[in-house]
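Field: sequence (string)
Field: structure_tokens (string)

Example rows 1 and 2, in order.
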Amino acid sequence: MKTIKDRVAIIGMGCTRFGELFDKGIDDLIVEASYEAFEDAQIDPKEIQAAWLGTCISGKTGTVLSQALKLDYIPVTRVENACATGADAFRNACYAVAAGVYDLVLVVGMEKLKDSGLSGLPNFRKHPVFYEGETPPGHYAFAAKRYFEEHGIGKETLAKIAVKNHYNGSLTSRAHFRKPVTLEQVMNAPIISWPLGLLDCCPVTDGAAAAILTRAELAKNFRDDYILVKGFGAAIGPGCGTNTDEYDFCHWEETERAARVAYKEVGIGNPRKELDLAIVHDCFTISEIMVYEGLGFSKKGQSKEDIDGGVFDLGGELPVNTDGGLLSFGHPIGASGIRMMYEIYKQIQGKAEKRQLKNPTLGLAHSQGGVPGWFQCVITILGSRD
């Protein structure tokens, strides 16, 4: 079976500042992210042959992208897959390029949440009984409490995730929150849904990110430091997890299955040793802990020891969320997945500001939508050219 490995290259990327951008509209965010990507790739927008738009609520069709960029009747595909929207738009664009259908394409992920009145991801699950009155913090709080009971940890372990990510965010010029926090501040923050406090939760945010893709054999015509797509894994759960007695809240099945597919495609046997960084879906601090185990970075129930040992810090064995993650950037739903890839792209190129790692060559982006028991997961692995 053919794989995507080394068949598609990223030759340009752009990312807006994330935040409460009341002074900017949807068009402004699309233009800002896209034109940074065009300039980075040193191409004219008219060279783009097709485009993909990832958004959950900030546009009904691809016309949103076409109108903002004044595209000349090229095909634009709108993708929506909850919090995995941006990553899935990117994945679909990559397969079109790898198939040889297009030579040069644009992918944009964006969301304008602050003007919508929404407090986060809308409830997509329609059922006359199930899911009424639920909230994402409530679901993740269930997971945190269950994990506490199963593995004997407490709120302080969650707080250490928040401290790490907010410190990394303080080194990132485009993050929503750019101030470090102390363990005491996290522990004493107002409770949203126990044990999750305010600083355990990512903010509601506006933002956009963009990527320019081409076939790998064409990439050298644009730049020398292009980045290659190494592999994907995607898994969508059947949505019945929390409706069964067997669901334990303590593992992300979709993450585990998507990881196995991606690792096989890339040829990764020991992700903790072979990856140089990972940018993961830390919508809540407990999510990052679960993702460590789902991606094979930590053994089941042993994340606490690795967190205490600094394994995932900037100077650790496997830095995670080097840019501050969702806890610092916030979560403009359609934009987050491509923002994650933007960080890996900049890290591998050696352009990641004060948080730059030493010679990274392989990074993983983990995007996961929904709530425990009902997830959509897309994993993207990017690497340097040989």
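Row 2 begins here:
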Amino acid sequence: MEDAQRRLDGNAVGGVLSEVFALEMTNAEGACASCGAVARVGAAMFYPHGMGTIVRCARCDNALMRVVYQGGSPGRYVLDLKGLQYLRIEEV
């Protein structure tokens, strides 16, 4: 299956991010480090993979963030946010 066939919108990544962040993440706003587009996480493109989660800019396809869960005892998450200029998270 090709990436385009696996692609979901950014709202789908809310479940993965809620495991890491206590606040609602689909409403968080970020700026793409590549093209400068400012949008909510829910507007991004979400690619779930066995090796982790990739969230891409809907405008230029830049990888905004990568989320990897490393199981074990204790389990841990690795976050790569270098594709974002910033990520603004609002309290609900």
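free_text_note (row 2): The chain has a mean pLDDT of 89.
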